[in-house]
Amino acid sequence: MNPIIHIGRYFVFLAKVFSRPEKYGVWFRQYIKEIQKLGMSSVGIIILVSLFIGAAITIQMAYNIQNPLVPDFVISLTTRDTMLLEFSSTIICLVLAGKVGSNIASELGTMRVTEQIDALEIMGINSCEFLVLPKLFAFVMFIPILVIISMFVGIGGGWLSTITIGAISPQDYITGIQIAFEPYYVTYSIIKSLFFAFLIVSISAYQGYYVSGGALEVGRASTRAVVYSIVMVLLFDLLLTQLLLS
């Protein structure tokens, strides 16, 4: 299909998604379920990835900054800013694009090929709003929590590396993460993550919703959802960085 047609159908899909829920009680129960399925279930992988990456960044900085003229606290300062500016928003959302994006695309794709979505439409239910809007709101509302968890755990992972490996002294590490702290960096990362979360859910839902065929097409839709989500996250990372930090 022509890419222009896909773009147009994507925005028509979003217009259907952002319609008024027919029953707010049902919508809210779905919203709570999606918070647990998309948000809470992602906490473990976020903690694991952030812990090891924070430690790895600290060790790499200690290895590369071996200069008697550069104080050791610069290592932890660099680790902190790397986590706040880029890793805890962009890289974490790239990880979640694989986990959350494939989950949404495969779920909706399976519902499409098994005609469950058609059954909802026959009953007069707006399937786009009913199936996608709770996922969208749940993930967008929960992503700032995941980003903040990643920031704390990543910086903590760097501190643990100073104890276990001795890249620098723990005292120098604590000094570095306190120097020249910019609270706006946290705000910047959260703003980026909100855009990324919206892109991941909407693109993945679009790919799954319009699946046609069988189980093989569901797998292909999941792959496309992850790939397109990653590309758009990287593109918007560049655009938002230019807008928010220039």
Helix count? 9
By DSSP, the count of extended strands is 0
Rg on CA atoms, Å: 21 Å
Q: Class by helix and strand content?
A: mainly alpha
Percent of residues in helices comes to over 70%
Shape: elongated
* Whole-number mean pLDDT: 90
Order of helices and strands: HHHHHHHHH
Cα separation of the termini: 38 Å
- Which strand-content bin applies to the residues? under 5%
Largest sheet: none
Number of domains: 1
Low-confidence stretches: none
Outline the fold blueprint.
Elements: H1 3-17, H2 24-39, H3 43-64, H4 73-113, H5 116-122, H6 127-164, H7 170-178, H8 183-209, H9 215-245
Helix pairs in contact: 1-6, 2-6, 3-4, 3-6, 4-6, 4-7, 4-8, 4-9, 6-7, 6-8, 8-9
Task: Provide structural commentary.
This protein has 246 residues and is mostly helical. Helices cover 84% and strands 0% of the residues. The protein contains nine helices and no strands. It has helices spanning 3-17, 24-39, 43-64, 73-113, 116-122, 127-164, 170-178, 183-209, 215-245. It is elongated, with a radius of gyration of 21 Å. It starts with a helix and ends with a helix.
